[in-house]
Amino acid sequence: MDILQLENKNIVVMGVANDRSIAWGIAKKLFAVGANVIFTYRQERSAKKLNLLLEKNNYKATVIQCDVNSDESIATAFTEIGEKFGTIHGIVHSVAHARAEDLHNRFLETSREGYAFAQDTSAYSLIAAAKAAHPYMTEGGAIVTMTYLGAERVLDGYNVMGVAKAALEAAMRYLAADIGQDNIRVNAISAGAVRTLAAKGVPSFNTILHKIEETAPLKRNISQDEVADMTVVMLSPLSRGVTGETIYIDSGYHIMG
Fold first, then answer.
1. Which pTM does this prediction carry?
2. Is 148 a catalytic residue?
3. 8 A C-beta contact, residue 142 and residue 88
4. Which of 36, 56, 109, 143 counts the most CB atoms within 10 A of its CB?
5. Is there a contact between 227 and 26 (Cβ–Cβ < 8 Å)?
6. Is 216 assigned a ligand-binding role in the annotation?
7. What domains can you pick out in the chain, each with its CATH number?
8. What is the pLDDT of residues 71-84, one digit of tens each?
9. Which residue, among 73, 45, 83, has the nearest Cα to 62 in the 3D structure?
10. How far apart are the C-alpha atoms of 197 and 18, rounded to whole Å?
């Protein structure tokens, strides 16, 4: 029995930067359960890396350009996906970015442009993707976005990205309330510290890793695989009664005082 019921389902994965990306870990799990994976990428260099990963692992997938800072690009990408596959059953939104200076400077020095860019890329992109995909999610489905504890607690060096993730989590809840009537669920995965390209941009990242090992109930950091496993569950009918939730995969770190 295929308990996950994701075989031949069309899942869009947004945000693979390299093989350490959480989105790539999720994609590997989706391939393993027989899903049809459709990747979106922003820049040509990302497409090259992604195609090399697919070739190296003997995966076959559709790869489509999608600039999340452009409504036109998002609409074009999801129209192409919808016309090619007919139905979209799920989306993995693993997209976030802020300017380096807004992570390294004092939060007080965040520029208007930097704030707007982080919000547009990291939070609004979820709404825009859901809107573009909605006409093709005719059989219901699930949208899962990636967040972080910095959305609700102050973490050194996370700065404007923490504010963007807070907006992302609020957007997730409002989307869940809005499109739940269409049998589309929207949830967030709050992953612990994982060595990704994005994480390298946070000045205090190594300190955070050590603190989690000392403080978390499980006394260890989490892996890409652990985040991927829960994300696949949240994309599947196993989680059909869950929407509007932030689910923590962080060895229990978030519960500690």
1. 0.94
2. yes
3. no
4. 143
5. yes
6. no
7. 10-248 (3.40.50.720)
8. 999 999 999 999 99
9. 83
10. 8
Helices (H) and strands (E) in the chain, counts: 9, 7
Question: Any binding-site annotation on 194?
Answer: yes
Integer Cα distance of 175 and 41 in angstroms: 23
Catalytic residue among 124, 158, 248, 253: 158
- Provide the token pair at 194: 């994982």
Does 22 appear as a known binding residue?
A: yes
197 known ligand binder: yes
User: What's the rounded Cα separation, in Å, for the pair 58 and 246?
Assistant: 33
Confidence of residue 198 (pLDDT cuts 50, 70, 90): low
Compute the distance between CA of residue 55 and CA of residue 42 in angstroms, rounded to an integer.
19
Mean pLDDT over 182-207 rounds to 78
d(CA 38, CA 83): 13
Q: How far is CA 45 from the centre of its chain?
A: 20
Q: 230: Cβ–Cβ under 8 A, 6 or more apart, which residues?
A: 189, 247, 249
Please give the DSSP secondary-structure letter assigned to residue 37. E
Please pick, among 41, 124, 136, 148, the residue that the annotation labels catalytic.
Answer: 148
Please, are residues 130 and 91 in contact by the beta-carbon 8 Å criterion?
yes
SS3 label, residue 193: coil
The conformation of residue 140, written as its DSSP 8-state character, comes to B
